[in-house]
Amino acid sequence: MLIILFFQVPGLLHSIKGRIYKVNDRKRIGAKLKKEIGAKLQEEHQKEQIKCVKQMGALVDHPDAGLVNFSKSVMKSFQFENKSNPAKYHEYLVASIPDRIKILKAGSSVVTEQPNWDQYAYFKKELRKLMKKMSEDEDLKRFFRYDVGNATDLARSCRFIAQRIVQGRHEDGTEGMKKVKADKQRRLKKISGLEEYAKVFIPPQIRIKITDNITFNDLDVLPVYSDLENETLENLDIPDVLTYNYIDVNFVNIIREKQLARAIALSEEEQNHIKCDCHSDQESLIPCYENDACPCYIMNKKLMKFQVDNGEEPVKFKTFEPINFNNIKNAFYNHVSFACSELCKCSGKCSNNPLFLISKRIFPLQIHRVDSLVGFQPFSPVFIPAGTPVALFTGELISREYLNEKDVDYSYQITYDNDAKWRAFVLSMRNQFSEEYVQILVHLCSLNYYINPKHHGNIGRTAGHSCVSNMDMMKIYQKSLTPAHANLMMFTLEDIFPGTTLTIDYGYAFADKLHSFCKCGTFACINNPKGEPFETLNSFSLAVCVKEIHDEKRRQYLKNVVEPLKREMEN
Q1: The pLDDT of residue 543
Q2: Which pLDDT score, from 0 to 100, does residue 37 have?
Q3: Which of 31, 59, 162, 517 has the smallest number of CB atoms closer than 10 Å to its CB?
Q4: Rounded-to-5 percentages of helix, strand, coil across the chain
Q5: What band does 117 get if pLDDT is binned at 50, 70 and 90?
Q6: Residue 28's pLDDT band (boundaries 50, 70, 90)?
Q7: Confidence at residue 74, expressed as pLDDT on a 0 to 100 scale
Q8: What are phi and psi of 490, to 5 degrees?
Q9: What are the distances in angstroms from CA 568 to CA 60, 193, 562, 571?
């Protein structure tokens, strides 16, 4: 049996816990795996999933079958712990899709709040726990602003979201950008009914909990609920799409992606590393961002030059500071960063690492379902400020050549084969990197790479589309500059109030499809039956609408959650 080896990117599959195993005695291991899961290969559409399960099962079950060290250049310190139920984790890991559905159904339960139920009690409880967690973290107490932004930041985020709405009305990015540029500020007539779009989801008194933790990681708990009306345990429907393998980092099939594997190997060489020696005996958060001699910060500054000069200060990618894009043009491409990592002497616990907040796992996110057609989506029961890193978008890092057509719609492109600007940047590193490494980096510039989360992914896989999306993505490199060193980070575009579903914009490719079936429910939804008053508004007017909805959500949040909680804590 062929066992495919994996490099972890940029970290380690949590089921493998820091090492990768190479099988030497394939016949012995193959016989065991064949007996264990061979009977589960009946359905054709399961083959890809089962193949990956075999590989992962072999790596978990046979830690002493021969070792190949992970590339330190992409290795990421990752904490995984499953002391609560390791047997259940293994059972789920090696199960087929139908068997995983059976396992999830068997573990589902009805959860009910107490009789004197306060509909906002859940939000208050989660906020209380979050505040306690932050009060126990010195870095968060000193550096993280847990509140709505200032007026300037709010105006910038509303304007950016509004421009994204205008762009989303067009199937072509160039045409959408022309419309944005042509917009002129004008007085907006009062539009009634916006308060309807300020409503948030209030968890019902009775819910169906499908699982306490879809990640199986005790350190990263992610419950899954189904909140469909009239649903019971007897008629509970669990779709195949919920049975993906949960991973917290990307991985690469190094047998198939030989050129990328070679680049990863070369990046291990000292000359091709980018790391720092910054340290401090006084500061818990090392000031790498303030150190002009820090190699990681130097690279961060170089990548900041990708941002288009529009007369404003470049967006800073600094630990604990909000990320507020100020230019819609090619936003994903132009906003790219380089962060310190555990390879550095600072261990990434510094001011030059926006990913540091994600590693603290302070926000108690959930996955839930309120519409059978929309399916499962991430949901926040707590307030999250605008510009906050929330999660990574993980999956298999794969070139377009090997990406299954059925998986394209799930995948997110992170590199472009016609990227002359990035190619020139790579060539500018000739005096720093080895000649062979630069050559292979240039070659990789001719390939389109994607992150495919369909079979292996994390919470980012469940992020649905919205015509008024509240999250965006950006690339953050660590350690070096291959596609394998790029993290795809999801961050909030606006303040997220409790009860808000986390969404992204699926982009121009989906514009035509969304006309007939988008169910995001936002005021500017392309399929909104009440959306006529908003269809002709330009980005300036739409920004006013976005702000009015934001202000109403904030008013309700203060009234129903924050102020009552303050009174409770004072008594």
Answers
A1: 94
A2: 42
A3: 517
A4: 40, 15, 45
A5: confident
A6: low
A7: 54
A8: -100, 130
A9: 48, 33, 10, 5
Contact 195, 178 (CB under 8 A): no
* Structure tokens belonging to residue 435: 């000649």
pLDDT at 532: 87
- Of residues 445, 454, 412, the one with CA closest to residue 427: 445
DSSP code, position 169: T
Q: Which of 449, 430, 422, 389 is nearest to 302 (CA)?
A: 422
Decide: 502 and 380 in contact? Cβ < 8 Å: yes
| Token pair for 481 | 């500059």
Residue 41 has pLDDT above 90, yes or no: no
What phi and psi, each to the nearest 5 degrees, are found at residue 247? -130, 150
Mean pLDDT score, 106-128 = 89
CA gap 31, 325 in Å, rounded: 54
What token pair was written down for 28?
A: 């012995």
- Which one of 65-74, 77-86, 487-496 scores highest in mean pLDDT? 487-496
CA distance readout (Å), 246 to 158, 215, 394: 33, 6, 9
* In the block, residue with structure tokens 């021969």: 66
* Angle (nearest 5°) at CA 530 between 526 and 532: 70
240-516 belongs to CATH 2.60.120.10? no
Pairing relation of β-strands 389-392 and 486-492? Answer: antiparallel
Q: Span 317-330, mean pLDDT? A: 92
Specify the pLDDT at position 32: 53
Q: What distance in Å separates the CA atoms of residue 292 and residue 273, rounded to the nearest whole number?
A: 18
Is the pLDDT assigned to residue 197 strictly greater than 70?
A: yes
R_g of the chain computed on alpha carbons: 24
Q: Note whether 96 and 36 are within 8 A (CB).
A: no
- Angle in degrees, CA 220, 222, 226, rounded to 5: 175
Q: DSSP characters for 229-282?
A: TT--TTT----GGGGPEE-SSEEEETTT-HHHHHHHHHHTSGGG--------SS
- Inform me whether the pLDDT recorded for 56 exceeds 90: no
Q: Is the peptide bond before 483 cis (omega within 30 degrees of 0)?
A: no
Picking from 393, 436, 412, the residue whose alpha carbon sits closest to that of residue 249 is: 393
Spatial contact of 301 and 293, defined as CB atoms under 8 Å apart:
no
Amino acid residing at 27: K
What is the identity of the amino acid at 498?
P
Secondary structure of residue 21 in the 3-state scheme? strand
**Nearest alpha carbon to residue 542 among 202, 168, 71:** 168
Task: Return residue ranges of the chain for CATH 2.170.270.10.
Answer: 240-516
